[in-house]
Amino acid sequence: MQTPADPQxxxxxxxxxxxxxxxxxxxTARIRPITVDDADRLVSFYEQVSDESKYYRxxxxxxxxxxxxxxxxxxxxxxxxxxxxxxxxxxxxxTVRYDRIGADGTPASAPADEAEVAFLVQDAHQGxxxxxxxxxxxxxxxxxxxxxxxxAEVLPANSKMIKVFTDAGYTQQRSFEDxxxxxxxxxxxxxxxxxxxxxxxxxxxxxxxxxxLAPGSVAVIGVGRAPGGVGRSVLGNLRDAxxxxxxxxxxxxxxxxxxxxxxxxxxxxxxxxxGPVDLAVVAVPAEHVxxxxxxxxxxxxxxxxxxxxxxxxxxxDGRERQRALVRQARTYGMRIIGPNAFGIINTADDVRxxxxxxxxxxxxxxxxxxxxSGAIGIAxxxxxxxxxxxxxxxxxxxxxxxxxxxxxxxxxxxxxYWYDDPETDVVLMYLESIxxxxxFTRLARRTGAAKPLVVVQGAGAxxxxxxxxxxxxxxxxxxxxxxxxxxxxxxxxxxxxAGLLLARQPLPAGPRVAILGNSESLGLLTYDRCLAExxxxxxxxxxxxxxxxxDFHRALSQALADESCDAVVVTAIPTIGEGAVGDPELAExxxxxxxxxxxxxVLVVHVELGGLAEALSAAGRTAPxxxxxxxxxxxxxxxxxxxxxxxxxxxxxxxxxxxxAATAGAEAPSVTLPRSPKTLAPHPCSRLIPAYPAAxxxxxxxxxxxxxxxxxxxxxxxxxxxxYDDIDERGAAELIGGLLERGEGLTxxxxxxxxxxxxxGIDVHRALPAPTPDAAVGAARAxxxxxxxxxxxxxxxxxxxxxxxxxxxxxxEQLRRAYDELSELYGTPEELRPVVQRMAPRGVDTVVRAxxxxxxxxxxxxxxxxxxxxxxxDMAHRLVPVxxxxxxxxxxxxxxxxxxxxxxxxxxxDTPALEELLLRVSRLVDDHPEVVAVTLEPVVVAxxxxxVLGATVRLAPPPARDDLGPRTLPAY
Length: 972
Description:
The protein has 972 residues and is of the alpha/beta class. The chain contains 28 helices and 41 strands.
């Protein structure tokens, strides 16, 4: 449609519309508004579009753009006419534009709320999901400018573009007239459109990580000629790991006659490599990285692992250097691990990638490992080797990512990859910071419903990590993560303890624990720890120190068969003397008993049993196969040492210098069992019994598994966000918009607060000002007796304990007497700011709050008013949107909750009404991101109903982009 162009833009350039996005194939592109400076780019772009695509766009042969066309397509007012371009390397690969129209289809301005939209995608980039990404962004722009509906006219043969619109998930209408398909769709997000957007986001981001972890070719840039050095070490690690793809060594200082180094082809530049390069490991100083990135981008490299330091961790100059690095890489559509990264590992047999500083390849297994810190990454890899069943390899690592400063690829991206990675059953993450916690909790909730996610989080962000500061206590953020299905632990020891249990054993069906063993003291210690962790242990069964392997087998079999048992902890201490049970014999006894009832988890607590730890690790090799006889019993020879086992292992895997059971001390566990269909990881590998050197570690891991199992069962039947017929969302939006015109952020007045909350069915008791005794009497007459007289000065507000409140004033005489008392005790009316309020029914005083936290997002909090919440911090929290199940659990989560349910003979109060109030507050802040804080205090919960006696609301302009908006990478 032809629309006249204004001589100048009506709005300034909207820089907040700029965004980097991940496309369907894992590459990246930049989306930005089209400006008058883009005329040459537009013409060049159009020349590369096929005649067929031009025909589909203009419904006629249109070989070239006229000067008038170029002017129209590059001059926008950013309100009624908007154009966006997707760019790679600074050049256009696709465009989209909308033109606002009226009811008659002619150009219009607001309040018209419909626009025509049209796309054009370069043929070489069709099928990459560019149009879908542009549609998300142009729809968000349109909503921001008051457009509620798009219309598009498409030729019937243009099936690809029709699919873009129909697959978007918006509510649509389709018609056919004059040989053209007309599509009309509302831009209000629907459950389906949000689901479609997030599914596309997951596929794109997972693929972008997969391109890094499974490259067909790798170039190490910065390989020195002399042994040692970072580049040479990484090259050796890749070679020694048996990388299955093509490997190249790059250094501009290589002599021209040097053809290879350590058997790897050498090149002076990435440009000299004949063939594609999927991944480049950059091991040059920071000042040379920009030149390397340019070479990689021009050669078509898909991703970078930047090991160099000297970026944001080094100060303001380094931070700007890091921003420039990300911008430069994204210009070429590349993603970055790092900078200041430790590297990445993929143990899959068809990849065998060790693009890291780890000198040895970890054993392959089912655990995905993410660590922002290289030092922590080394520690985690080492512990998993010592405790992960190194001989069998069953609980080793599938993939490992150490992101360093995580300037681009973050834990969120890797979570997207692991969510549907068939090679990963359990995810372990060490996070020093969470750049986008709202997205992280969303991804964690989805991932946790499919596989365990165990996280240890540092208390603060280190240098180099750009994160938004949270206003919530660290404990509160941890609680919110747990609600999202995250198994939150405090140390890397607990991370490994919980992770190995979840990788090896089925989830417990409940908290009931059987304890058995040959030490009464160790059994009682385990029993006490179970009670402390909230489990329900049975009294320990003491088999005495004379117990044989057969006694252990019999006792474990009986415990597992008991329907009142959900998990079993076996405790064992060394025995000496004639007839003492041998370690291999005991390991085999436990293995065979657990095999009989494979649906319940079994843990072992052992004390100074290096031999048993080794036997548990080797039991998978010594276990009898179906139809085979058992190995010798009665204290036969110990399993061969680890080195001998490695020699009998995979002949293609290079020898590895890993700790043996002796050097690992008490850190080596594992008994191999056939995997049950009910276990967490339904793959053909075998299942292991984890062993722990201390009761508290075993019980803590079990307690985390119990809580996670309960969360999984609840997540299978999630609650609902109720709909309320009396909510006036549109009216609230209009009121908020009018109030925000007064300023950037404000706490709105009492009357406006009551009106806004009233739009969501929340009735606030009116409090009338009483600057004089006569005014107080007049207010009481208007409200009706009995009334309360309250001082609202900041030092007295919500402080009934200080005597600034007089209740149940039944008549004028009592009201005047109370007014005089307050004035005599606390100061003049100007100091007291007294108000009169109608009495509410007696009940329990509570407080309800909602806040938009910069890091965690929208959070609803609840507690009892007064000392319980203010002094003791007895508040519970839930992420928005709150479901009916969330509201029910929120009310019951505080320690003082018994006061709501008839504690010591008091009358129970109306908790269903309280839960409804929480749900309405959640809807308010979820529907209107401009509402950044709500406080309702006190909220009196009576036997019948609730009374909101005080309320404050704070507004602020909504963020330009949030997790509910179109797909976008973090901005730099």
